[in-house]
Fold this sequence. Notes:
- Pfam families: Flavin_Reduct.
- Belongs to the flavoredoxin family.
- It comes from Paenibacillus taichungensis.
- This protein is mainly beta.
- It has a single domain (about 15-185), classed as Roll (Pnp Oxidase, Chain A), CATH 2.30.110.10.
- Helices cover about 15% and strands about 40% of the residues.
- It has a seven-stranded antiparallel β-sheet.
- The longest helix has 8 residues, at about 55-60.
- It is globular.
Amino acid sequence: MQHEVITPSILYYGTPVMLLSTLNEDGTTNLSPLSSSWALGDCLVLGVGIQGKAFENLSRHPECVINLPDASMWEQVEGLGRYTGIYPVPGEKRMMGFEFCDDKFAVSGLTPQSSIRVEPDKIAECPLQIEAAVQHIRIPEHTPFMAIVEVKALKVHVHTRLISGLNKINPEKWNPLIYNFRHYYGLGERHGESFRAEK
């Protein structure tokens, strides 16, 4: 197999999309689409742009909900992509086509749902919802336009159709929305399982 060195403008090589709920100053919930995250145990690490409302809200109120949409929700996710909760819209964001929106539930057609352990609302339509508390926020010197946000999962809510046993999610039924070089995908067919896969 032959390779070639390139310099892509982005490295969104295929990660799950999330809609991050954070708390606004007035007690309402802001929604921010994100595609940079990973999880290990009950720790999740999020990549959050520092010019957005999510970063501002997390810095002030260290709670959030990680709402994970399935592949069928891509149009609702994309519908949120052009909006920011920051007013006035920062110049750089305005030049990229962003507009201010103070009610992202209304503009996306999504439904707020009260959380149990945190103040920001969950998104009712998302099959997986993770209530979380911020543990640490770091802005790397080499990439000062984004923050690395470490959170701890407090409560995990799963749509009943995805549950396959006590505290287990059925991977055959969960089809996360994947962001792959700025295109949306679901999962293809199953190819196999890890030796640690739960039976």
